[in-house]
Amino acid sequence: MADITYRSKINRIRTFALSLVFIGFIIMYVGLLFRNIEWLMLLLMILGTISIVLSTVVYFWIGMLSTRAVVIVCPTCEKQTKMLGRVDACMHCRQPLTMDKSLEGKEFDEKYNSKKKSR
Ligand SMILES: [Zn+2]
């Protein structure tokens, strides 16, 4: 359950956008270190700017995705989370979530079964 690779899609894209900003600033900083070599500084400045512009685009994309995401309450931590697609992970506790009943994990299924039986 604490699998690092299994993260919420929105969180993953957000991390990607944030790292793009950092990479952009690092590239620009390196560019300043090479201010004696004009073409290299210029190249690094342009690359840094592209990286930051890209992150803005990615942030915009997250905004677009968020409007399409389904807001649900996580059954594990009972917080509101956004789901993208048929299968996604909770943004808070990384609990795998699914819209498709046939894809639900064993533990999940058992809970549902026992609820049905008690009725
Ligand atoms: Zn959760």
Automatic annotation (TrEMBL):
Q: How does it sit in the membrane?
A: Multi-pass membrane protein
CC annotations in GO: plasma membrane
Q: Does the keyword DNA-binding apply?
A: no
**Entry-linked Pfam families:** DUF2614
Give me the segments passing through the membrane. Answer: 16-34, 40-62
Where, per UniProt, does this protein localize? Cell membrane
InterPro entries (UniProt xref): UPF0295
Signal sequence bounds = none
Protein's UniProt keywords contain Transmembrane: yes
What are the alphabetically sorted keywords of the record?
A: Cell membrane, Membrane, Transmembrane, Transmembrane helix
Give the similarity note: Belongs to the UPF0295 family.
Name of the protein in question: UPF0295 protein GGQ92_003057
Organism annotation: Gracilibacillus halotolerans
